[in-house]
Each structure stands twice: as structure tokens, then as C-alpha cells.
Amino acid sequence: GAGRRWGGWLRTPPLLACIVLAIALAPTVCGQAGSGTFRFGNIMWTSEGNTVSFVLDVVVTRAQAGWAFDGTAPDGYSREGDEVILSGQEAPQFFYGDRQVDRVLRMQVTESSVRDNWIRGVVRLPPHTYPSPNNQGKPWTAQYTGCCRFTDLLNNAGDPYALSADVDLTRSSRSATSAVPPVVTVPYNPVSMPRPTLYVAADDSASIDWSLGKPAIVGGAVHVGALNTTGSLSVPLAPIAAMHTAGAYCANTSSSGACLYALLAQDSSVAGLTVEGWVRIADDEGGYVLSTGEDVRGSCPFTGAERVRRCEMSVLSIRVNSTTVTVGHEVDEAADPYFSAAHTTFDVCSSSAEVCEVLRAYDAGMSGSMTRKWVHLAVVRTPAPAGGAACAGGAARLQYTVYLNGVLLGVSEGMCGAMNRVGLASHGALLFGAYRPEGNSSAYTEATLAEWRFWHGVRSPSQITGSMLARIRPAADGEAPTEGVVTVATHTSSNVLMALWDFTVACEGEEACTVSRVDPLYPTGGPFRALLGAAATEAVVTAETDSSGVMFWESAVGAMEGVDPNGRVTLLPKKGPGLYQVTVYISRGGTSGRVPVDFMVHVVHVEPDAEGLNTLCPGGLMGCAFAGNQFMPTLRVMGDVLMAGECSAVYRPGPALSSDLGGVLYPCSVAAYTGFQVRLTALGEDAQRALGPGGAPGDGPDGDSTLVGFAAGRGPGGGGG
Asked: What is the DSSP string of 176-201?
């Protein structure tokens, strides 16, 4: 009673993804019904001189509640032949890597599915001329970014996406190209089967390198101290200081400016401050990322010791150079210069081999340096444990805990806080990118900043890692992430967001622009938003993001185990059966022409039976997601080829050798010769029986609801497959 199909199409229920031939052939799409936006992306490029033409191959959701891609289909939505402007929760953009950006991306729809609710198409960007073949010896990094990923994914669901392509015209005149289906289905059983694998097909496989996707960032940023000028951002603290009464506990409201000031000023009425954000220093020297001091827009009326104590002394500072992170504050001293530093320095590679290894992955010299790499800093300041000598003037003893990329660097010893902090109230400011800036040009830091957040309370390691790779976008005050009610007694286990600067500043044109003011993203309204606006001095400009460090992940942590030299990806489906996002990069000879292939993998749980067939519903049909389908269909692709090595073959006309390309060669090359016609045979096998009356298995051939099919078409470059 097992029915069979040879060739042709076969139709499966929506939850059983289609089987596709993808041996360097154009893919056939198989989507899954449901809501979402971005599902699949592929970047390709060609060049002539310094002019590069980019092409994006994209799959997105066709329609969902509240919006749709309109078009000429009978239901009013888009279909083949229509042109749509790509959109989403955050509209996709294409950054060329040289401060140029395309913000309106028009896609020509080439395929669509009403049942599975997707459209696929091509975005052909206008030819772009770079000022030089590469970026001072490094590739230009182009990025396709937006938000959000398909919501039915088991990893990265609803997250922003950033697909990066490298362009170095001294090494390659075009990128590698690939032809991978937007959804690839693999059977898996964690008990009885090895981890599932799949192949990423690419052109000219003899010269292609495969690698897993690295992290990259999305969103805006600001660059301070450009070319070592006096560029910084200054948030005056006097307005919010006026809202706070010394010694009085501030209200536990997320928009309370009084709380923010009290925590910065080391007020004894509050405990627990967490500051976190992303930074990319431009040189090995680095500098102060964050400090407090005199507002650069005001003039301190004092001199000598009073000036230091009332205007200049920093009650919080974070400094980064190529190898270390330094945190702390300053305390009063009787003698000139009237202050001393209470700082702790952590050497990154000495403190954490884990972080050092990550940094080395982004450095050809394997140095572990933080220079020109995005890193995430989290600094937690709390009262120090009991013990130690009493501090002068009744100042509190403080302790700092520092995390880099979510990994603990260390915990400082207890250190005395400042005695006199009144200057912070009248002339103080929160400074980004500067330290004691008055008349001191060397105190400015050239760096790029993004997503800086201030929390009342202690953020745990899991909370830091859980949110650092995602953007926080509260819709209104009071909707910020909150963990419990923060009090002096609960500050170690509770926290609430007080302020957030994402440093995304819109420019009128496509070029980077000078920044005059940066408003906080949170609070979203009320008096505090206006008060927390950061004024910019000279040489603060908008900045693009790149893939030089770890921020928002392109590829899911833990979803892939590795990729071998032949393009075989081994999956790690930790969350069980379902949809996973996978990002693989292909390049020509190392990093030349490196481009992403971003697609989904549908992992289907099966139970192999005694005959070796993959059973879909081993527990019976009741409650089975694949009702009517007892076994997973199979597909083999055969070719008349002569093996010429482990990963290559030559087409051989005449007696068929019937080599299985899917199991042996794919995605390796098959060489053919002019005048011969290459023959490929696709064998689809369906081992399940149709259901009879009442849902019982029937004895006849399969019904129309269970079919097997394949697709064959053009190769990825438009030539023969």
C-alpha cells in the first residue's frame, strides 16, 4: 500500500515544508503561514572599476494584521510582476559603508504564495561608486538592516537583522553567489539521529570559502571627538538636581530625574546604579567614554580648590583603551590638586579569556585589542560590603562590578566616595566622550557610542546579556523594563530604567551630519525628556554601524555548530522542532567578496522505523501536526558523472553511473563540456498511504494531499546549473 511519485510536484500540508532541489540551481520557495516580516536575505554584487552594483534577494511576509504589500493579485495584495517598497517595524535600509545610504528599497516581486503568505523579489540598487577600491586596506562593509525577523522563529524571533557584505575591489571584482531555498527542511531525532546537516550551494565551489555569520550592529550611533577634536556630549544635571532633596529616597518611577541625579551624586538615600552601553574606540589610547564634570556650556564661578570640588570633580567615570577598562570616581583632597582618583582597572585578556577570545575573532592579528571594535560595557555600582576603614566626611564606601560583552571582568575593592558633591548640582553635567574638558583638548575621546542606558538597581548578568543584544524601545513613560520595586533593601534584585540614549540622529540627506543635540529615547515625554537632552560641542557627527564587534547578532547563538570546507552546515536545534534562522557567509578565497546567505531551517521531529523510513506521527494520528502524512517524503538527485575526487565530478555521457549528488557531491562542482547535455534525474519517494473513510489508513494509492516534488532552474549566476 505505499504510494509513490516520480518527478512532478507534490503538495503537502502547510506545516510540512516542501522539498527542493538546490544543487547550484535557482531556489523554489517554501514559506510557512503566519505573521512576520523579514524571512530570507541574500546579497550579491558585481563591479566595474570602483563602481559596484548590489542586488538583494529578499523574502518577506506578504500580509499581516494591519498592513500588507498591496498589488495586483485578486485579493489586492502583491504577486509576481508587482513592485513594492520594502517596509517593516523599522524600514529596511542599505548602508554602503562610505557614509552613503539608500533608505527606500524597491523590490520587483518574482514569486509569491498566498497560502504560505510570502513574497520574494529582487532589489537592484543603483550603481554605487566608492572613493577608493577599499577602505584604507580593509574592505568596505555594506549592510542591509531593518526590523524585524519572522515572529515564528525559535531563535531571533522579532529581532532586528543586519546582513553585511564585504567589498575589496583589489581582491575581487564580484561577490560569490548562492542559491539556497528560503526554507530548508531537515528531519531530526536527538536520540536516534546525528545532528542535522544541510548544504549551502554556491557558484564556482572550487574557490569558495564558507563561514558562519558573525555578529554585527544595527541602528544609529554618534561619533565624538572626530579627528581628536573637542567633540563631546553634555547633559546638564542642575535641572534634575533641583528635583531631589538630599537624604530623601527618590520615588521608584522610571521617569524620575531625581533618581538619576541621586544615584550619580552618590546620595546615601539610594543604592544600586547600573550603566551600560556600546562603544567603539578609534585608537589604542581610547579615553573617557563617560564621566561627570563641569557643564561645557556654563562657566564655573569658583577658583582653586573650590573650583575642583564644586565643578570639576567626577563622581562617576568609565574609561577604555585598547586592552583595559577603568571605572571609578574622584574624592576630595586637602592639598593641590585637591582631588585624587578612586579607580579600578581591569585588563581584559587577563581578566577574561572568554572575552579575549571573542575580540581576537575580529582581529587578523589575534591581539585581543578593543580598538576599532564594538564592545558592550556594563558597570554596576553598589555599597561595598561591610568592613574597612571609615571614610572621611561620612562618605559611603562603594564597589564596582564590570562586565564586558556580558562577561564578568571583575569586582573592585571597596573605595570611599566623594565628600562634597554640591558642585554637581549647580554646575555639573553628565559627559559622553570627555573628562575635565575645560581647556584640556587631550581629555576628549574619539569614539562611537550607541544604546547607553541608566538603571536604578542592579542588573544581573542574565539581565545584561538578555537585553544587550536587543533594542529597548518603550512606547511611553512607565512602559520601560522593570524588575520589581527598587528600594535600598531590594536594589540588588530589582531595577528600573531611568534614562536611555540610543544616539540615533536623523540627517536630512544621505550623508553623515553634524549633531547639535541628542534627545533621550527614554523618558519618552514629560519634563524629564527635555531636561535630559544632550548638547553637542564641535565635531560630533552621526555614525554608521559596522560588523567590527559584537552587538546585535546576525546569526543565532547556539543554532549552528559549524560549517565544513564544502559548505555543509551542522545545526544545533536546542529548542526542539520548528523554524530556526541560519546565516552563512560565502567568499572567494578568504574574505574576498564575503556576502551573507540568510535563510530559515525547518527542523521536523521524526522517528526512524524498522525500514529506515522517517515516521512523522509515531504516536498515532490523533493530535499530529501532519495529519494524513505518516512518513516524511524523500528526494534524491542523480547524475551521470565520474568521480574525480572527494568534492568534484566530471559529466560522463554514455552508461549512467547514477551518482547521488545530494548525498555525495552537493554542493561541489560538476564539470561539463561544450556539446554535451547534462542530465540530472530527481527521484521523489512518498512512502505513506492515503487515509480512507473515517480517517483510517486506506489501501489505495496516495491522495492529492500528499505529493512529492522538485524544482530545477537556472544557476545562481544566470547561466546553466
From this structure: --B---SEEEEEE-TTTSPPPEEE--
CA distance 561 to 404: 24
Question: How high is the pLDDT of residue 577?
Answer: 86
Distance CA 257, CA 568 (A): 54
Report pLDDT digits (tens) over 461-476: 888 877 786 667 776 6
Q: What are phi and psi of 310, to 5 degrees?
A: -100, -15
Task: List 453's β-bridge partners, or say none.
Answer: 276, 500
> What are the grid coordinates assigned to 312, written together?
570639576
d(CA 191, CA 444): 58
- Going by C-alpha positions, the residue among 209, 193, 213 that lies closest to residue 573 is 193
**Residue pair 716/27 in contact by the 8 Å Cβ criterion:** no
Transcribe 541-559 into DSSP letters.
EEE---SSS-SB-SS-TTS
CB-based contact 596:585 (threshold 8 Å): yes
Is the pTM here over 0.70, yes or no?
no
Q: How far apart, in whole angstroms, are the C-alpha atoms of residue 139 and residue 577?
A: 38
Distance of CA 366 to the CA centre of its chain: 23
Calculate the CA dihedral of residues 662, 664, 665, 671 and round it to 10 degrees.
Answer: -110
Contact 513, 542 (CB under 8 A): yes
Instruction: Output 452 or 474, whichever has higher pLDDT.
Output: 452
14, burial (CB in 10 Å: exposed 0-12, middle 13-18, buried 19+): middle
CB 637 within 8 A of CB 682: yes
Number of Cβ within 10 Å of residue 669's Cβ equals 19
**Contact status, residue 328 vs residue 411, Cβ threshold 8 Å:** no
3-state secondary structure 54-88: EEEEEEEECEECCEECECCCCCCECCCCCEEECCC
